[in-house]
Write a structure and sequence with these properties.
Length: about 220
Amino acid sequence: MNIFRLAGDMTHLLSILVLLLKIYATKSCSGISRKTQELYAIVFVARYLDLFTDFISVYNTFMKVVFIASSLAIVWCMRFHPMVRRSYDRELDTFRHYFLVGASFALALILHEKFTVQEIFWAFSIYLEAVAILPQLVLLQRSGNVDNLTGQYIFFLGAYRAFYILNWIYRYLTEPHFTRWIACVSGVVQTALYADFFYYYFISWKNNSKLKLPA
């Protein structure tokens, strides 16, 4: 554990808490892509197949359970909660996310670090997480306006990946046998996808105005 890993975990957790606050406080999921949330649920379930086989620490196990449970809870609310599901932007959330699932799994079968079931699914989760934000970004570009909580959620989600890049750099410099190149490359790709959003987020913060994305 290092400061960059801890900061990444905390900003990731904060992003989830902000999203849960939006859903449960406002009883609305307007501006949130259900398809992105479904992709994240798949990511965490696939990545943490070792939850019942490999124990690293109480902290590690706790965070795995939190990410799986929270992602499934968010998807459930958006699909089945009688009030929340009414606010879902079905007409705007039309990204064909199943293509991302298929492409990520195919890539995991080709590019992986070890040919085992657990490592294949780990690589699949890394590839899928790198592009899981795409349906959300497309939805926001189509809607134009971004409410405050949705903007905060995406900002913290992007910051989490940025901290993890610093974590990987730190580990590469301090751990002789650190070889998670798949995570490093995918993390850079994922952070790059947030660049446009971060630009407009900074502009809105600087001008103290409402966050708007170009169509």
